[in-house]
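Below is how a single chain appears once it has passed through the pipeline. First comes the sequence as given, then the structure the pipeline wrote out for it. We keep one example in the README because the format questions we get most often are answered faster by looking than by reading.
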Amino acid sequence: MEQRTYGYARVSTREQNEDRQIEALTRFGVPEANIIIDKASGKDTEREGYQYLKRQILRRGDTLVIKELDLLSRSKGDVKRELESFKEMGVRVKILDIPTTLTDFPPEQLWVQDMINSILIEVLGSIAEVERLKIRTRQREGIEAAKKKNVRFGRPPAPLPDNWREVMAAVKRGELRPVDAMQVLRLSRSSFYRLYRNIL
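Resulting structure:
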């Protein structure tokens, strides 16, 4: 059976660019046509391209190449499960940032390769998880500090229409229904009630 090589690249948002990963994969020898790309978060492994690659494309004897370990997932537990799954499938995983995964050991020494890779993946996975926890802690602390300074998050409030006060006074006196006020102010229902809540 022909042994094939595939690559996997992932960026978290549509604004991010995957070119750096693709360049690294093609330089390593992965055909560009064999690179599957996801533009999705790494919070779990339920990504369309990744699942298609795993369930429909990869076969026993194939090789999967990725640039960095956390492209599989940001969770150390998920990474371990995915690597174990590939091992059971008979798919070799090469991680460009972990050179020992790129070395071809003779069959009688594959246990050495597995041991070294397991240690490295455990260490790197733990470091990545600690870094993510630090980032989340810093974000939470930053948000709490900003809230203490009355910094508002989310979409800035829309400016009030020039005739807002007189129209709303008419609503308050019962001379105008809210639905009619929306038309007079030329506001959508959501914009009208958002402005109404903001000035309460």
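The radius of gyration is 27 Å.

See the next section for the split statistics.
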